[in-house]
UniProtKB/TrEMBL annotation:
Keywords: Membrane, Signal, Transmembrane, Transmembrane helix. One of its GO terms (cellular component) is membrane. It is a multi-pass membrane protein. Belongs to the EamA transporter family. Residues 1-21 form the signal peptide. Its main location: membrane. This is EamA domain-containing membrane protein RarD. Residues 5-154, 165-298 form the EamA domain. SUPFAM superfamilies: Multidrug resistance efflux transporter EmrE (SSF103481). It is found in: Membrane. The keyword Ubl conjugation does not apply. InterPro entries: AA-Vitamin_Transporters, EamA_dom, EmrE-like. The chain crosses the membrane at residues 37-55, 81-104, 110-130, 142-162, 168-188, 195-214, 226-249, 256-276, 282-300.
Length: 328
C-alpha cells in the first residue's frame, strides 16, 4: 500500500526542484548574474544544512559501509571518503550547475527542464556500458522512447525560444550530472545523506568562491527582489527539496520515489507557462511525455524487490535500480 505521507513528501520535493529554473529566470530579471546566483545558492544551502546537522545530531549518524567493509574505517580511508564528497561538489556539482544556469540565460525554462531530464537515461546507458547494470528488453524500449522523445523536443522548437548553444549547454549539464552520479555511487552508501549534501554544497561553494576571487568578485548590487529569488533557490529548491526527498524516500522506497520525481519537469513546464508566458509546441509536449514515460518505465521493473529492500536514505543511488537519485 502506498504511503500517502511519503508520496506527498516526494511530490513536494519534485515541485521544489521543478521551481528552481523559474526562480532562476526571475532572479535574472531582477539583475542577478549567474555567478552570483550560484555562489549565494551553494553558500547559503551549505550554511543551512550545517545548521540542520547541529540541531539534529541523529542525522550525523554514519551509514554502514558496503558488505565486507570494517565498521571502523581507518583514518586515511575516512579522509579519502570526505575528500571525495567535497570533490563531488567542487568539480561535479559546480560544473553541472554552471552549465544549467548558463543555459537558462539562453533558453526557456520548460525546454531546458526536458533536455536536462534525459540524465536518468544517460545514467542507465553508462551503467550498462560500465558493467554495473544490464540492459533488459524493457529498458531497451525505454531508451528508444527517450531518444525519440528528445529528438521531438529539439525538432519541435517552433513554440519556444530555441538556442543551439543553450541546448548544447543543457546536454552538457545532463552529461556532467551523469558522471557526478556515477562517482557519487561510490560514497553515498558510506555517509549520512544530509552530511553528504552539506559536504557537496560546501565543495561547490568553495569552487565558485575561488572562481569569483580570480575573476574580480561577484556583483551584489541588485534589488531586493533578487535576494528574495536567491533565497527561494537556496531554501526551497535546495535545502527543503533535499530534506523532503529523503523523508519521502524513507517512507516509500527508492522505486516509488523515483517514479514520483517525474513530476519535476511537469512542474517546471507548468510554472513557466503561468509565470513566464512560455509554451511548448504540441510536438514538444509529445516528446516530453515520451521522455518522462521512459524514466518511469526504467523504475518499474526493480520496484518489487527494491521497495522491500530499501531501509533508509542510502538506497537512492544503487546502480542496480535507480542510479540517478542524487539530487541537484
Amino acid at each position: 500500500m502506498l504511503n500517502r505521507m511519503g508520496a506527498a513528501l516526494c511530490l513536494l520535493s519534485a515541485a521544489c526542484f521543478g521551481a528552481m529554473a523559474i526562480f532562476g529566470k526571475l532572479a535574472y530579471q531582477a539583475g542577478v548574474s549567474p555567478g552570483t546566483l550560484l555562489l549565494v545558492r551553494f553558500s547559503l544551502a551549505a550554511a543551512l544544512l550545517g545548521m540542520v546537522l547541529l540541531v539534529r545530531h541523529d542525522l550525523r549518524r554514519e551509514a554502514p559501509g558496503p558488505p565486507g567493509e570494517p565498521a571502523d574505517r581507518p583514518a586515511a580511508a575516512r579522509r579519502r571518503l570526505l575528500a571525495t564528497a567535497v570533490g563531488l561538489g567542487a568539480v561535479g556539482y559546480a560544473t553541472q550547475a554552471s552549465l544549467f544556469f548558463s543555459a537558462l540565460q539562453l533558453m526557456d525554462a520548460s525546454l531546458l527542464s526536458l533536455i536536462l531530464y534525459t540524465y536518468p537515461v544517460l545514467v542507465t546507458v553508462a551503467a550498462v556500458l560500465l558493467g554495473r547494470d544490464r540492459l533488459t528488453p524493457g529498458r531497451g524500449a525505454a531508451l528508444v522512447a527517450a531518444s525519440c522523445g528528445t529528438l521531438l523536443v529539439l525538432l519541435g522548437a517552433g513554440g519556444v525560444s530555441f538556442h543551439p548553444l543553450g541546448a548544447l549547454l543543457a546536454f552538457g549539464a545532463a552529461i556532467t550530472y551523469t558522471g557526478y552520479i556515477l562517482v557519487a555511487d561510490t560514497v553515498v552508501h558510506r555517509l549520512p545523506p544530509v552530511v553528504l549534501s552539506a559536504l557537496v554544497m560546501s565543495g561547490a561553494a568553495g569552487t565558485l568562491g575561488a572562481r569569483a576571487l580570480l575573476t574580480g568578485g561577484v556583483d551584489l548590487d541588485f534589488r531586493l527582489p533578487g535576494w528574495f529569488w536567491l533565497a527561494c533557490i537556496a531554501v526551497v529548491s535546495t535545502v527543503l527539496a533535499m530534506l523532503t526527498f529523503f523523508a519521502g524516500l524513507k517512507r516509500t522506497g527508492p522505486s516509488t520515489a523515483a517514479i514520483l520525481s517525474t513530476f519535476e519537469p511537469v512542474v517546471t513546464t507548468g510554472l513557466a507557462a503561468l509565470t513566464l508566458g512560455e509554451s511548448l509546441s504540441a510536438v514538444q509536449l509529445v516528446g516530453g511525455v515520451l521522455v518522462l514515460s521512459s524514466v518511469a518505465v526504467l523504475q518499474v521493473r526493480p520496484a518489487r524487490n527494491q521497495d522491500r529492500d530499501a531501509t533508509g536514505p542510502a538506497a537512492p543511488v544503487q546502480l542496480a535500480g535507480q542510479p540517478w537519485r542524487v539530487r541537484r
